[in-house]
Amino acid sequence: MVSKSRWGVLAVAALAQLTVVLDVSVVNIALPEIDTALTLSTKDIQWVAGGYSLAFAAALLAGARVADTHGARRVFIIGTTAFVAASVAGGLAPTGSVLIAARIAQGLAAAVVSPATFTLLTTTYPEGPTRTRALAVWTAVSVAGGGVGNIVGGALTEYISWRSVLLINLPIGIAVLLMTFRYVPRPVLSNRPSVDLAGAALGAAALGGCTLAVTELGDDGSTSVASAAALLGIVGTVGFVVRLRRSPNPLVPARLLANRILVTGNALTLLTGAVFQVPIWFFLTYRMQQSLHLSPVRTAFGFLPLTTAVVITSIALTPRLLDKHPPHRIAAAGAALASIGLMCASLASTHSDAYFLAIGIPSILIGVGGGLLNTPLATAVSSGVAPDDAGAASGLMNTSKQFGGALGLAALTLATGLADFRLACAVMAVLLAVTAAFSFALLRSTVAAR
């Protein structure tokens, strides 16, 4: 019965995580249809794609800590319900502004759901090979969710409507809630500290302000808004650091910041998120639709090599390698392999109609590399964490991942535009090359020190 319950928790956590990650990219292929239906500017298009990730990242620390203070199960149920409601609102949106608002609301709800899924796993599975395998499944759906989102989004957009890419969350959400009531036990809550609302507000201001500042530097942006957002980000960052030192119940306990493996893992997760969380799916979509002139559904299935490679590598290969080799070597090898794949994609001819050479082979390399890279990082950021801090640790990891994705998308769009796929891939290749070097050097030194 215990084993069955654990598998049930894993199924709930994986499906919920897949859904919230899927929604990072599910609208990507639908963007041209959304643009036609609602007449959006380039900046608005970016907000439909990136507003979700921005809100997700900004609220994650608070959302994760709520799971520690009120129980992961209860918070998970409330967050999932709110996520479904926001999805329905977005699917029925009559204007671009309503759609953007709904996407931001989705992101806020996802900031509660996603860390709760990770907390459910780390409190259900003890450290060791069993947890590694559970996290491998969670990581696989986290990374592959972008590809699954594009496949689902493409099929629904072409055969039904762009609105269905959001409305599909209603039946999925109902299924997740029913499984939660059946498989996830009610926790026994002791006296736990309250959430630091001031710290949460300052953290959101820091993350949101920095990303908005980069976003507004684009051609359609406003210099005054960018300046104000940058100031907000700076003030929020300083205030958040001060609050961490003075608050009796900080969002990130000092004992977590003293965990060198956790801190290093989060720094590398941020770099990885700047490629895998949003940008790679975003730019691949535009590459296939604009340069290769593929239809939405053909574009969707064009992600199969990348998605399949990530899932198979994460679940079937990486846990076995982690049983025999230190995590820093596997993470470094994965980042290096993904970097090679991205560099191959950047060298492909812009006018080439050969999907296999331009997208297929590079995608396999990127997928295998991503599958090798992400599970060691997820294992590192949960290493040595007490159950009472599981939510905070999850919040740190998810914040690093989502903030890296939102900031990476904004920065890459600013630097390369929507059409220069080759330059975007080259920049992402450099980011992963840096990640490979740091993974080998920093994770090795922290593990050795420990």
Automatic annotation (TrEMBL):
Major localization listed first in the record, in broad terms: membrane
Ranges of residues in domain Major facilitator superfamily (MFS) profile: 9-447
Bilayer topology: Multi-pass membrane protein
Keyword Transmembrane: yes
Top-level taxon of the source organism: Bacteria
Keyword Secreted: no
Coiled-coil segments: none
Pfam families given in the database record: MFS_1
PROSITE patterns in the record: MFS
Entry's transmembrane regions: 47-63, 75-94, 100-123, 135-156, 162-183, 195-215, 221-242, 263-284, 296-318, 330-348, 354-373, 423-443
This protein's UniProt keywords: Cell membrane, Membrane, Transmembrane, Transmembrane helix, Transport
SUPFAM superfamilies (UniProt xref): MFS general substrate transporter
Compartment(s) of residence: Cell membrane
Protein's name according to its UniProt entry: MFS transporter
Species per Swiss-Prot/TrEMBL record: Rhodococcus sovatensis
